[in-house]
């Protein structure tokens, strides 16, 4: 961060806040040493278990990189298997191995499910994930989605080293509070404070890996906020490192002259077609063919507010889970914090905003409470609640019941879909929109069915009796299944099993 980036009167205040936050959330040396000693013990034990065909063992995740928050004792160990190992075999060996290891270390274990099952364990105060994966090299196609994780780790560790060297050589004043990893920790706490940390589908925010890439890309927390305050949805970030990784030649590429090569690249080359730059002659079908990628207009990324191409898999957006609403929350709080720095942003700020929002006169509140199967995880339930809620909201709006806000929340036993309306009752009068005047056939048809018509601007409208005069009545009809044909019924959130709670609004927390 260069000082010119900050308003000078805020500079000192920001620095002191960041120091205080870091002091509070950065693990102390003792804690780090405990983690390292314990991880070493695990890896040593694994290496002694030679009867299993494991090629390599790697420690990954934030605790391996010094980017974890205090009291986060998660240790992620990935077990690499040969690419030719059969999937079923990988699953079975992975589980058996995990169980034997945890038993040896006197821990407790559970089986968890990602793309394939893995062992998660509690040993002393540490949580351990033991994930089997395939041994994939840079540029090779993934076999399972977790194969990326060791590459993420390798990428970040190298990137931090490169960056440190670069900072030293340029006397780059990037991290006034310490190192690049300290800025990652600060960003994670900031995002927790404003309720945006987590890439699960309930939070729809920023993953730890995304935080690390952002800090690396922008060269620190304050630099990131300074850019983020100007972001607009559709922001795309391509890390220049991929040029080297995938052997792409770039014209006029000279890092010596650039303060931040990553930003320079994105500003100057966002429209280049990487096909022309592809220097790779590889014909191996296992190697990613850059020719197949149209990075910057990929159809999958069209509606995503932020796209960061994963260096280990260019087909994946690291920010895929981030919702547009949360993207703009980040933009808003980045600006607010820089303009009026306050440590409050780092601690339950989202709850304070919510409390403030609730301290006011209310509209009309309704909540649909639907039983939930506790075995169906949040990552499935939340998107399904969102879909049902959108579909019902559409019907409310078609019937003129204006929605002030809505929220979806689930606990172990129930889903709660809540709405607040401006109005709960309507007169027996509805204004229906008809066709534009320049489509005579439609106009004649509309007039035949709606004798009380009139012209407004370029269209016909007509007064007609209203079908649903109260929003309660409309929701009761929905719960009774009378509007089944026009509602999306997700598999695990069925509105017909619902109960209507009046004057109730349950927040997502
Ligand atoms: N949505 C996710 C979640 C995880 N990972 C990979 O799995 C690793 C471990 O996941 P997790 O523990 O969730 O994240 P951390 O980076 O360790 O961050 P935290 O400090 O929150 O634990 C990440 O570093 C990342 O490589 C990923 O790519 N995408
Ligand atoms: Mg972790």
From TrEMBL:
InterPro entries from the entry? CAA_C, CCA-adding_arc, CCA_tRNA_nucleotrans_2, NT_2-5OAS_ClassI-CCAase, NT_sf, NuclTrfase_I-like_C, Polymerase_NTP_transf_dom, tRNA_NucTransf2
Keywords attached to this Swiss-Prot or TrEMBL record, sorted alphabetically, are:
ATP-binding, Magnesium, Metal-binding, Nucleotide-binding, Nucleotidyltransferase, RNA repair, RNA-binding, Transferase, tRNA processing
Organism superkingdom:
Archaea
EC numbers listed for it are 2.7.7.72
Q: Which residues of the sequence carry a binding annotation for ATP?
A: 62, 65, 152, 188, 197
Q: Where is the tRNA nucleotidyltransferase substrate binding domain?
A: 182-241, 280-347
Which cofactor is recorded for it? Mg(2+)
Q: Which residues take part in binding CTP?
A: 62, 65, 152, 188, 197
Q: Which Gene3D superfamilies match?
A: Beta Polymerase, domain 2, CCA tRNA nucleotidyltransferase, domain 2, Poly(A) polymerase predicted RNA binding domain
- Please provide, alphabetically and separated by semicolons, the GO molecular function terms listed in this UniProt record: CCA tRNA nucleotidyltransferase activity
What residues does the Polymerase nucleotidyl transferase domain cover?
Answer: 45-152
Output the Pfam families linked to this UniProt entry.
CAA_C, NTP_transf_2, tRNA_NucTransf2
Q: Where does Mg(2+) bind?
A: 74, 76, 129
**What residues does the CCA-adding enzyme C-terminal domain cover?**
372-478
Top enzyme category:
transferase
According to UniProt, the reaction catalysed is: a tRNA precursor + 2 CTP + ATP = a tRNA with a 3' CCA end + 3 diphosphate; L-tyrosyl-[protein] + ATP = O-(5'-adenylyl)-L-tyrosyl-[protein] + diphosphate; a tRNA with a 3' CCA end + 2 CTP + ATP = a tRNA with a 3' CCACCA end + 3 diphosphate; O-(5'-adenylyl)-L-tyrosyl-[protein] + ATP = O-[5'-(adenylyl-(5'->3')-adenylyl)]-L-tyrosyl-[protein] + diphosphate
SUPFAM superfamilies given in the database record:
Nucleotidyltransferase, PAP/Archaeal CCA-adding enzyme, C-terminal domain
How is the subunit organization of this protein annotated in UniProt?
Answer: Homodimer.
Q: Which NCBIfam families match?
A: cca_archaeal (TIGR03671)
Q: Known HAMAP family for this protein?
A: CCA_arch
**Protein function:** Catalyzes the addition and repair of the essential 3'-terminal CCA sequence in tRNAs without using a nucleic acid template. Adds these three nucleotides in the order of C, C, and A to the tRNA nucleotide-73, using CTP and ATP as substrates and producing inorganic pyrophosphate. tRNA 3'-terminal CCA addition is required both for tRNA processing and repair. Also involved in tRNA surveillance by mediating tandem CCA addition to generate a CCACCA at the 3' terminus of unstable tRNAs. While stable tRNAs receive only 3'-terminal CCA, unstable tRNAs are marked with CCACCA and rapidly degraded.
Q: What protein family does this chain belong to?
A: Belongs to the tRNA nucleotidyltransferase/poly(A) polymerase family. Archaeal CCA-adding enzyme subfamily.
Q: What else is known?
A: A single active site specifically recognizes both ATP and CTP and is responsible for their addition.
Please identify the protein, giving its name as recorded: CCA-adding enzyme
């Amino acid at each position: 961060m260069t000082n010119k980036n900050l308003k000078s009167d805020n500079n000192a205040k920001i620095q002191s806040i960041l120091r205080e936050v870091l002091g509070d959330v950065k693990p102390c040396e003792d804690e780090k040493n405990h983690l390292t000693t314990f991880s070493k013990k695990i890896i040593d034990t694994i290496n002694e278990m030679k009867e299993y065909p494991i090629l390599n063992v790697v420690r990954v995740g934030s605790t391996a990189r010094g980017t974890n928050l205090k009291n986060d004792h998660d240790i992620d160990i990935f077990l690499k298997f040969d690419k030719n190992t059969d999937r079923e075999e990988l699953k079975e060996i992975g589980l058996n191995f995990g169980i034997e290891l945890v038993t040896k270390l006197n821990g407790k274990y559970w089986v968890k499910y990602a793309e394939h099952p893995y062992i998660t364990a509690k040993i002393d105060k540490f949580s351990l994930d033991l994930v089997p994966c395939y041994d994939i090299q840079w540029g090779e196609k993934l076999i399972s989605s977790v194969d990326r994780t060791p590459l993420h780790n390798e990428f970040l560790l190298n990137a931090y080293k490169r960056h440190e060297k670069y900072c030293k050589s340029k006397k780059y004043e990037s991290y006034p509070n310490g190192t690049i990893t300290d800025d990652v920790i600060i960003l994670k706490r900031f995002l927790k404070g404003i309720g945006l940390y987590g890439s699960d589908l309930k939070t729809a925010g920023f993953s730890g890996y995304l935080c690390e890439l952002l800090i690396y890309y922008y060269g620190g927390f304050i630099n990131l906020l300074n850019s983020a305050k100007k972001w607009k949805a559709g922001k795309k970030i391509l890390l220049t490192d991929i040029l080297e990784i995938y052997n792409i030649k770039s014209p006029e590429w000279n890092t010596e002259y650039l303060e931040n090569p990553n930003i320079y690249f994105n500003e100057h080359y966002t429209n280049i077609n990487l096909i022309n730059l592809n220097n790779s002659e590889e014909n191996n079908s296992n190697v990613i063919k850059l020719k197949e990628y149209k990075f910057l207009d990929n159809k999958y990324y069209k509606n995503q507010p932020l796209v960061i191409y994963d260096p280990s898999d260019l087909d994946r957006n690291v920010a895929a889970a981030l919702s547009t609403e949360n993207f703009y929350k980040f933009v808003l709080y980045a600006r607010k914090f820089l303009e009026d720095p306050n440590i409050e942003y780092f601690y339950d700020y989202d709850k304070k905003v919510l409390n403030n929002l609730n301290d006011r006169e209310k509209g009309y509140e309704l909540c649909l409470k639907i039983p939930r199967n506790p075995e169906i995880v949040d990552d499935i339930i939340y998107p399904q609640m969102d879909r049902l809620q959108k579909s019902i909201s559409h019907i409310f709006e078609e019937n003129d019941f204006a929605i002030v806000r809505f929220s979806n929340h689930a606990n172990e036993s129930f889903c709660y879909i809540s709405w607040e309306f401006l109005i709960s009752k309507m007169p027996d009068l509805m204004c229906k929109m008809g066709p534009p005047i320049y489509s005579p056939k439609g106009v004649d048809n509309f007039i035949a069915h709606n004798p009380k018509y009139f012209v407004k601007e370029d269209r016909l409208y007509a007064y007609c009796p209203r079908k649903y005069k109260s929003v309660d009545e409309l929701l009761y009809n929905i719960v009774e299944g009378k509007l089944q044909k026009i509602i999306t019924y997700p598999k695990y959130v069925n509105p017909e099993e619902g109960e209507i709670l009046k004057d109730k609004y349950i927040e997502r927390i």
